[in-house]
Amino acid sequence: MDDTLQTLREAILAMDEEGALAATQKLLAGGADPQVILQTGLTEAMLELGRRWNCGDAFLPEIVAAADIFGKCSAAVEPALATTSSSDVQHHLVLATVKGDLHDLGKNIVAALVKTVGIKVHDLGKNVPAERIVEAVRDIKPKLVGLSSLLTTTMPEQKRTIDELHAAGLRSEVKILVGGAPVTQAWADEIGADGYAPNAAEAVNVALALIAK
Ligand code: B1M
Question: Going from the N-terminus, what domains does the chain have, and what CATH number goes with each?
Answer without folding.
Answer: 2-84 (1.10.1240.10), 92-212 (3.40.50.280)
